[in-house]
Design brief:
Blueprint: H1 2-14, E1 24-30, H2 48-55, E2 58-64, H3 70-79, H4 83-86, H5 95-98, H6 105-111, E3 115-120, H7 154-165, E4 180-183, H8 191-209, E5 213-219, E6 226-229, H9 230-233, H10 278-308, E7 315-321, E8 326-327, E9 333-334, H11 340-343, E10 344-345, E11 347-350, E12 360-366, H12 370-377, E13 406-412, E14 418-424, E15 428-435, E16 440-447, H13 465-477
Parallel strand pairs: 1-5, 1-7, 2-12, 3-5, 4-6
Antiparallel strand pairs: 2-10, 2-11, 7-11, 8-9, 13-14, 14-15, 15-16
């Protein structure tokens, strides 16, 4: 009924010229981007391009990924299915071997007459698999690659050469440069600027071609290493950077909830174990913010060209981060958790002619919802395999009753491995950890209303026994029971 009502009324309201001219889609994915942006209330951030996009669209304040790491999250988004269906729970296994016949989001648009193109990082890329997924695209995906030389200056690379020249017994485990660098280099020296340039060229070609398009543009920053031109570091003076207030592990949280910052520790100068020093933590925070502003500048170039070409008036734009990120919060750096910082993501949708431009929605939405949402907004049929829910109605009425919960999970590899499953309701985050034999390994309960920094695990508090029981049942029943 919901979909029927939306089809009858909302399409016309949101985009009156829809039937005569199909909407283009500009699908912007950003790696490791947490919702620490000016438009999300972080006034210290310099993100004018993202803020402008939000001002002309709708910002979702409570959007969540399905898995807080690149490959599983993107596999879920692009297949429109949840991690238990994709079978992808880490960065070492890929979607197609498990789902050889699945019609992906860009493939669905391609099958309905769109020119479907990929620039930068849309599917996950690794050394073993390029992530191109040829079935999804009208042309081979364009990717600049991630060779190490593209991220660092010659000085940093010389440092790595010196390490490799040491006798084997004296070499550190991390044969990499430091995880951050401010360089006297132009934007064009870095891959994301090259992606923006390619996007500009591609938009010009698409404009000339006249066909509707689905254009995926994937920016890699602010992924580690935090390397970008000095001018972006200068936006965040060293004296303005502070450690997070919740830099400690939550009281009473179980061990599987955490990791040892292993992604960060793969870079040179980072301690191989033990605490990350305060000095390094401050540089990491500063470098991350600098890279966000660098990415924002590249985003601005693409959006400016969309405007210059007159394409904005018929293009649906969605910007999303593939998962959240920790910068010392909860005692963690990088992603790979079920905490709020790991799972909450930025999500902005801009639709031509939308009457709710500049508004916000507090509704719980998930990245798995993107596939059905974009398909509905572009009047495409919804494939039967989808496991998300279109949030297109929220673009017309952002404060209407919606999902009762969002679901995330994480596979903590190790000896032994653990699986954590998490549910986020309007007030609570509840997480269960089990070993692979389904034996309990810890429970977490956080009051997001009164303790949004998740400093105290309330799972052992008898006062919350009924809440714990209720959320455990919701988690067990699963996502279908939480639909609007």
């Amino acid at each position: 009924m919901r979909r029927l009502l939306f089809s009858i009324s909302s399409f016309v309201i949101l985009h009156s010229s829809f039937a005569a001219k199909p909407l283009n889609v500009l699908f912007i994915a950003v790696d490791d981007l947490r919702p620490e942006l000016d438009c999300y209330g972080a006034a210290h951030m310099k993100t004018p391009s993202t803020d402008k996009l939000a001002a002309g669209g709708m910002l979702f304040e409570r959007a969540y990924c399905q898995v807080a790491v690149c490959n599983p999250s993107r596999s879920s988004v692009l297949s429109g299915t949840r991690p238990d269906t994709t079978g992808v729970l880490d960065n070492q296994h890929f979607m197609r071997p498990n789902m050889p016949d699945v019609v992906t989001l860009p493939q669905h648009f391609k099958n309905h007459g769109y020119t479907s193109l990929s620039l930068g990082k849309i599917f996950h890329h690794s050394e073993r698999e390029p992530g191109d997924d040829p079935q999804s695209w009208s042309e081979p995906a364009w990717y600049h690659g991630e060779p190490y030389r593209h991220w660092f200056t010659k000085e940093s690379l010389d440092y790595v050469k010196q390490l490799k020249a040491l006798p084997k017994a004296k070499q550190p485990k991390q044969l990499r440069a430091a995880p951050f660098e401010a360089a006297d280099e132009p934007d064009g020296s870095y891959p994301d600027a090259q992606t923006a340039e390619k996007a500009i060229e591609t938009l010009q070609r698409l404009k000339a071609g006249g066909q509707p398009f689905f254009l995926g543009v994937g920016f890699v920053k602010p992924h580690l290493p935090f390397t970008c031109p000095q001018k972006y570091w200068d936006l965040y003076p060293a004296e303005s950077i502070q450690l997070p207030a919740n830099a400690q592990r939550p009281k009473g949280a179980p061990e599987p909830a955490f990791h040892n910052n292993y992604e960060l520790r793969s870079y040179g100068t980072v301690p191989e174990n033990g605490k990350v020093t305060d000095a390094m933590a401050l540089n990491l925070i500063r470098g991350y913010r600098a890279c966000v502003s660098f990415m924002d500048a590249q985003l601005g170039r693409v959006l400016d060209e969309l405007d210059r070409l007159g394409l904005r008036e018929n293009t649906l734009i969605v910007l999303w981060g593939d998962h959240g990120y920790h910068l010392g919060e909860n005692g963690v750096f990088t992603k790979m958790t079920n905490f709020e910082n790991g799972t909450r993501v930025p999500l902005i949708v801009s639709l031509p002619g939308m009457k709710t431009a500049g508004q916000r929605s507090k509704a719980l939405v998930e990245l798995v919802d993107l596939y059905p949402t974009l398909a509905e907004l572009c009047a495409l049929p919804l494939p039967k395999h989808l496991e998300g829910t279109s949030f297109a109605p929220l673009l017309e009425k952002p404060d209407q009753p919606w999902k009762k919960a969002a679901f995330s999970q994480y596979l903590r590899t190790g000896k032994p491995p653990y699986t954590g499953r998490s549910i986020r309701t309007e007030r609570w985050r509840y997480t269960e950890w089990h070993d692979l034999k389904q034996q309990p390994a810890g429970t977490e309960l956080y009051d997001e209303l009164n303790d949004p920094q998740e400093t105290t695990n309330l799972a052992g508090d008898s006062e919350h026994a009924e809440t714990l029981k209720e959320l455990a049942e919701k988690l067990k029943v699963g996502w279908k029971a939480s639909l609007p």
